[in-house]
Amino acid sequence: MLHERLIDALGADAVKTAPEDLAVYAFDAYTTGRLPAAVVLPRSTQEVSAAVRIARDCGEPIVPRGAGTGLCGGAVPTEGGVVISFARMNRVLAFDPARRRARVQPGLINLDLSRHVAASGLFYAPDPSSQKISTIGGNVATNAGGPHCLSYGTTVNHVLGLEVVDERGDVFHTDVDELGYDLTAALVGSEGTLGIVTAAWVRLMRVPEAVRVWLATFPDVESASDAVSAIVAAGIVPTALEMMDRIAAQAVEAAFHAGYPTDCGAVLLIENAGFEDDMNACESALARIARERGATSWRTARTQAERDALWAGRKGAAGAMGRISPNYYLQDVCVRRSTLPKALHAVDEIARTYGITVANVFHAGDGNLHPMLCYDKRDRTQVQAVIESGNEILRAAIALGGTVSGEHGIGFEKREAMTEVYSTADLATMARVRDVFDPARALNPEKIFPSGAACPEVKPQRP
Ligand SMILES: Cc1cc2nc3c(=O)[nH]c(=O)nc-3n(C[C@H](O)[C@H](O)[C@H](O)COP(=O)(O)OP(=O)(O)OC[C@H]3O[C@@H](n4cnc5c(N)ncnc54)[C@H](O)[C@@H]3O)c2cc1C
Question: Which of 42, 212, 213, 349 is the most buried (most CB within 10 A)?
Answer without folding.
Answer: 42
